[in-house]
Amino acid sequence: MATDTTAEHRSLTFLRIAVALQTSAIFFQAVTAGVLLSSSHGEVLHSAGARVMYAASMLYVLTAILAWRPGGGSPRPILYASGFLALASVQVALGIAHMPSLHVPLGVLMFGLSVLALPVDGRGTSSSISRSGRA
User: Fold this and answer.
1) What percent of the chain has pLDDT over 70?
2) Residue closest to 78 by CA, chosen among 90, 86, 92, 67
């Protein structure tokens, strides 16, 4: 039983790391978008950051599946991660199509959703707030 708990804890730790990496990559994208507006080097940074952000989204899906599988917990984090990967795909397509009127608001939405996903545990609920509403 202790081994199962340790494996579940390790899986949840990897899931949290994947979400934190994704959130950091999206924040980096926001910074490089500002650099893109003021410098010629911004395009290279923003393009590289887009690849990292997309890879981080794929890593989030993979870790959500791996965190769910051993413990048989809720598949809700997989749904969140898959939805986020779909948003990332749309975001990349909008960026390639040079549609900033949709690309920028979607980026803000993605950052907000990624921040909201940070405190999620393996059951798909916030790990910092109990059912009674207290930390």
Assistant:
1) 77
2) 67
